[in-house]
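Shipment paperwork, digital attachment
Item: protein structure file
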Amino acid sequence: MSIDFLFKVFEQNAAKSAIVWRKQTFSYEWLSNRINYWLNVIGFEKIQPGTVTLIEGDFSPNAIALFLALAHHQCILVPLTTASMKKKSEFSEIAQGQVVFKIGQDDTVKIEGLSYAADYEFYQTLRNLKHPGLVLFSSGSTGKSKATIHDLNKIFAKYHTPKRALRTITFLLYDHIGGVNTMLHTLANGGCVVTVEARNPDEVLNAIETYQVELLPTSPTFLNLILISEAYKRHDLSSLKTISYGTEPMPIHTLTRLNHLFPDLRLAQTYGLSEVGILSSKSKDSNSLWFKLQGEDFETRIVDGILHVKSQTTMLGYLNAPSPVTEDGWFNTGDAVEVDGDYVKVLGRKSEIINVGGEKVYPAEVENVIQMLDNVAEVTVYGEDNPITGKIVCTIVTLMNPEDPKQFSRRLQQYCRGQLQAYKVPLKVKVIDEKQYSERFKKIKPQLLPLSGTNN
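Attachment content:
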């Protein structure tokens, strides 16, 4: 069975801590027993292999045990978190869920039946193979969210080779490919999953101090919040050995500051997508945005400056959209990259490139410059249509402290003229009070940011 190797790991580490949740510690022996408990419940409820099961929760003990029990029973899993609740009806309809496990704040579980047929061809493929499946949704910031469907056996296969056992924060969400990777990688190596009740700088850093966490997988946006809040000054982070970051481009200013503040920490860039999983990577060094993608279970190629991936963990397809995977198995990531020997650097999404009179402007490059300006908390750069140049560069800024928007706009443009070519300098500057990141701590697309604020 697909997770038999995990049961062996759990048996070998029976007395060790597997999960820390709300100041309680749960051993690997407890986790093994809880998986067996849920397997008995699944049998009692007559939930058949191949059933599409929604799991509403986070990384609580029951949510983790249920995930593994349902996978062992060859069900098709659809994890949903509070960040997904606004789209719960949409996600349930797209996934055609048949059973939902609702996990409360106190980790109690309610089971309800749903009436969808769950007759997608991909589902039938998994049932014929007797393999568990995993459905993950895109953020769906424009239009309907895309639902990726994975063969979970292929994802589990990544974790057969033993690696270091680490105490790890589950920062990335339960319904995110990075969160699933954090959970499975930690448990497959006999590490400890340390959960947090709230994902804010002080809560996360306090958990690192209290439970001697060694690895923090997170996003550049959250790392910037740690720097802005100066929460790192209020907590002992001496146990932390590695911060891995991904999900969006890292501002070089943020990376440089982190290296200056934490010279002994390893800062490692990761690369992954819901469609292809998390790929093995190695940063050139802690202060570099260049990284090497390396692994026996995937291949990469660059086509017209865009990264393509062929991976054993590539999705079977989308449930609600045409497959973007070529007939020979290559997935176009849409990420524009620069190449230096074996290393690549992500410049940004091809769809976000701003074409100003035939010149390409990558938002991340301009954002990196603006982020270094005094009093800037968050910045988003985007393009607007222009009848003469095709596009112009615009920016939305959230300030650390109040400042006259017109004076700030002039200051920003003057600063950018000294750092950037003229066509890259923002012609429009909007100052807003609202945050520019989502519940997943990723930057919100410009068209979804609040309209309130001052244009200059």
